[in-house]
Amino acid sequence: MFDTVFEVLFLVGLIIGSVIRALYTTRHKRNRIAEGYETALHGLLLFLASLGLIVIPLFYILTPWLDFADYHLLTGAGWVGVAVFAAALCLLWRSHADLGDNWSPHLEIREEHSLVTQGVFRHIRHPMYAAHWLWGIAQALLLQNWIAGLAMLASFLPLYLWRVRREERMMFEHFGEEYCRYMNQSGRVIPRLWK
C-alpha cells in the first residue's frame, strides 16, 4: 500500500515540478539572446537527464517490467522522501522566481542579463542544480527500485559535471571580477557555512 502512496506522491511532485519549469520556460522566450554557448553534447545530456527524471520513473510506475529491481526501505524512508521532494520543489520554484528574466534552460546570456546574488542565490550559486540533486535523492526514497529510483541521480550527474563548469566560465566571461567575488561568497550547490 505505501508503495502506491509514494508513487502517487512522486507523480504529484513530478507534475508540480513540470508546471514550475513550463511557466518559466514560456517566460524566458520573451528575452533576446546576446551570447549562446550551446553544443550538441549539451542537448544529448539534457535528453539523458530527462530519461532519468521523467521517462524511467513513469515506465516503472505504469508498468510491472522493472519490479524485479525493487528494494525495500523502512516505511519512514518514503516519508523522508516526500519531505525532501517538497524541499526540492520549493528550491526549484524559488530559484526560478529569484532569477526572473535572467533564467534560461540553455547556456546563454540574455540581453540585459544581470548577476543575481539575492534570495537563494545569496548562499548558493546553483540552487536549481541543488534542487535537482534533492529531487534525485527523493526519487530514490519514493521509488524504491534500483533502476527507477536511482535513474535521476545517475542521469543528472553527467549533465551537472559537464554544465556547471561551462556555466561558471560563461558567467565569469560576462561579469568578470563581480562574478569572482560572488563565487568567493557562495557555495556551488551547498551553502557556505563560513566566508
Keywords:
single chain, 195 residues, mainly alpha, Four Helix Bundle (Hemerythrin (Met), subunit A), 66% helix
Note down, in words, how this protein is organized.
This protein is mainly alpha-helical. The chain has one domain (about 1-185): Up-down Bundle (Four Helix Bundle (Hemerythrin (Met), subunit A)), CATH 1.20.120. It has helices at about 1-30, 40-60, 75-100, 125-140, 150-175, 175-185, and strands at about 35, 110. Strands 1-2 form a two-stranded antiparallel ribbon. Helix 4 (about 125-140) runs antiparallel to helix 5. It starts with a helix and ends in a 10-residue tail after the last helix.
CATH topology: Four Helix Bundle (Hemerythrin (Met), subunit A)
Mean pLDDT: 91
- CATH top level is Mainly Alpha
Number of strands: 2
Characterize the overall form: elongated
Q: Compute the CA-based radius of gyration.
A: 18 Å
Topology as H/E string? HEHHEHHH
Named at the architecture level, the CATH assignment is Up-down Bundle
Contiguous runs where pLDDT drops below 50 for at least 5 residues: none
What is the CA-CA span between the terminal residues? 47 Å
Amount of beta strand: under 5%
What is the helix fraction of residues, given as a range?
55-70%
What count of domains describes the coordinates?
A: 1
Describe the main β-sheet briefly: 2 strands, antiparallel
Q: What structural category arises from helix and sheet content?
A: mainly alpha
Helix run count:
6
Which sequence of strands runs across the widest sheet? 1-2
